[in-house]
Structure formats: C-alpha cells, structure tokens
Amino acid sequence: MAELFTHPExxxxxxxxxxxxxxTSLLELAPTCMAYLREQxxxxxxxxxxxxEELRDWAEEYRADPHGYVPLGWDWQYQTPFxxxxxxxxxxxxxxxxxxxxxxxxxxxxxxxxxSYMQAVEDAYKQAGWVEARxxxxxxxxxxxxxxxxxxxYKQIAEKLELKEDYTAVRMAVKRLAxxxxxxx
Length: 185
Fold this sequence. Notes:
The protein has 8 helices and 2 strands. The protein is mostly helical. It has a two-stranded antiparallel sheet with strand order 1-2. Helix 2 crosses helix 3 (42-49) and helix 7 (154-160) crosses helix 8 (167-181). The protein starts with a strand and ends with a helix.
C-alpha cells in the first residue's frame, strides 16, 4: 500500500493506468486470450474474458493490426487534472561541507529539511481539496491476473512463476485487483 494525494477528479486517471498494466500483461502472458480476441472480435472477447469496457479501444486497435500493434503508454492523450504548484519551499537544501560539519549533523539537517518540505506539500494539497488515497500498485499482480484469464488456476500461477507466496496470496491479490478493475473472474 502507498499513500498518495489525488485530485477528486483523478480516479479515472489512475484506473486507466491500471488497465494499461493489465493490457500489457495480457499481450505478454496470455496468448490464448489474445487469440480469442483476434478470432472472435472485441465484443465476444470482452464478454468471454469478463473484461471491462475500458479495454475496448486498445483491443480494437490491436485486432486491426496485431503484428504491427504497439501499445501507446497509459497516459497517451489522457492527462491528469491540471493544478498549479501548490507550495514553495524557500529554505535551501542544506549544503554539505565535510571540513565544517560532521556527516551525522548534516544528515540530521537534511532529514529535517525533507520532513518540513513534505509536510508543507501535504498541507498545501489538503487545503486545495486533494485527498489522501491508499493505492495498491504491484506489477506482479497484473501478471497474475493475466495468467488467471489465460485459464491457469491460482496454484498453477504460483508454481509457474516459482513464487514464494502461497497460492492463497495469489488468489486474494488477483481477486482484489480484478474487483478494482471491474474484471469478472
């Protein structure tokens, strides 16, 4: 889990990022799933695999030219809500001169400066209406979800990738991510 400040209008932006991760995992790890798309068409593929409508544009482009297809980045023509810089930190970062200051004192000053700066940034975002959001971003989970859509069981996924995690951890992560993305497993 990570803490992140997001604009109230930014939820779709993050979801688009996650869908792009799923799409690239499908291209790399799910040949049967992608063959179904090429053979049956986008609508049948979305329904068969239980995928969200938001993958339609990528799927249509891929199906039109699977051999020449290059997925554009997740932020292609999709921008985060515009904001101005919310805070300025006027105090300069402490300089380090080993002839005048022992390293441990400089390190303490540098850490104090960073903490002060981060607090100023967080306060500014909160005052501007941004909210703290707990996000989960683990690239392996997208690969696990792609392999699950390929038809592998949770245990087979754990074994195939030689994961240290128990297959129940794989199951929980895949189900949580699928629910977040709107994928019906």
